[in-house]
Design a protein that fits this description.
Length: about 525
Amino acid sequence: MFNLLTEPLIRMDTTAGTLEPATLPEVYAALMADEVDAFPALRPHQRHAWHAFLVQLGALALHRASRSTPPTTAEEWHGLISGLTPGYENDEPWQLIVEDITKPAFMQPPASAPDKLAEFKSAVETPDELDMLVTSKNHDLKAAVAATATINDWLFALISLQTMEGFGGAGNYGISRMNGGLGCRPAFTLTPSVRPGRHVGRDIGALLEQRESILDLDLTRDGGVRLLWDQPWDGTKAEALLLSKLDPFYIEVCRRIRLQADPSHRVSALRATSKGARIEAKASKGVTGDPWTPITKEKSLTLARSGFTYKRTVDYLWKDWELPPLFEPTAAEESSPQDMLLVARGMVRGQGKTEGYHERIIPFREEVVPRMTRQEFGDIARERITDVGKVQRILRHAVSVFAAGGNTDSVSDEHRARANPWADRLDEIVDTTFFDSLQDEFQEDDPAKRTQIRNRWLKNDKDGVIDHARQILQDAEDSLPCPAIQRFRASVRADSVFSGRIRGSKDGFPALFDQEGGSE
């Protein structure tokens, strides 16, 4: 029931302005023709799960068929996809509901015997209750409210759970592609467009191009298991699959789930626990060859609570972590540069809670794309972050002095705490243009001109970092409580602290002011 290969179950908004139901092969054909505007049932936190599924499945199908370019017709896609699961005349691995528990269903592994159905004791009435932690614990979205859910909602919830979920308590293990049960599976990728088809098409091609580099990790193998839901699983520890038995592009499942339908075709689900994770990957700490995730030699990236701030993004991509394969420009993108977008997505998980879904899109100019992975790009970015940090410290000190009534000798932790939000405001302002301005400097090869670009970014009497900091200081002086009798002195001394330190040789920027004869 609900065969994704032959039944038009997936709703998509098309460029023709229509809402069209489509089979999975028809979805691929429409994506390759760039005819898909959106999938209306897809929730924001499910975007990467759906995108990664489409890319991995497409790349698996093409590699198996020894093809390097995606087909354009639904008929060809049907043959490629069904070729991944030979031996199933009724397409069971592509049906959302299969009553025989000893046969696979889509993203639902089979059991070894019919009596194993008795282990599926936990009923799930709505897809949002099935979905990963963001909805199941009532933190970001209320759980179990999708009483009128469509098959699309079940489809996306199932993919999200099986390919993105972490540890959910005893018997509920998470995916292999994250560092520990409280980690996450972040995504960093380049794309010429955020349109679904262009993004999927680009990543499929890039993934095929990067296959050998992923194999070099010596974790997975050619000819290994591709789709984990067609492998029997009764939830025992002995059944745990080794990474070395999996294809580099493997699509995993982490939970024992079976969808079912009543006579009126109302869908629900049953869950069973397991005694161990589906993949024995604890020692890998998420280093599994996931093409979207930055890694070190020891572990994969777990996003910080702050998400993709400019400082965090620079750290993730140009400091402590190895660039993920799909962030690397392809050979075509290096030889024929074009404007590209960095798409960063990820869910931040905490202990028994969700700490937010984050997404950021950063444009990169065509002149920068071939060189953006170089160490030099990261060096310039970190230098700029250091400069902002210096200005923030000076701003925080000045605001603290004002909060202390201008008494520089009695600044307390309480006064510093009052100053922190104002220093954070500078970060928010810098964040909006950081990467655009960074590219201005990186594109300039002349060292003297680079210095001029940096200096204008820091101070130009309008929208430089220091100019914004001074305005924030004035806003703080207008807003923070201060006895009227002390306000004038507090303001003068705060301004003096800011001006003195910002021009000082110890931790300021004297060269900026020397060029102006020492004046501001």
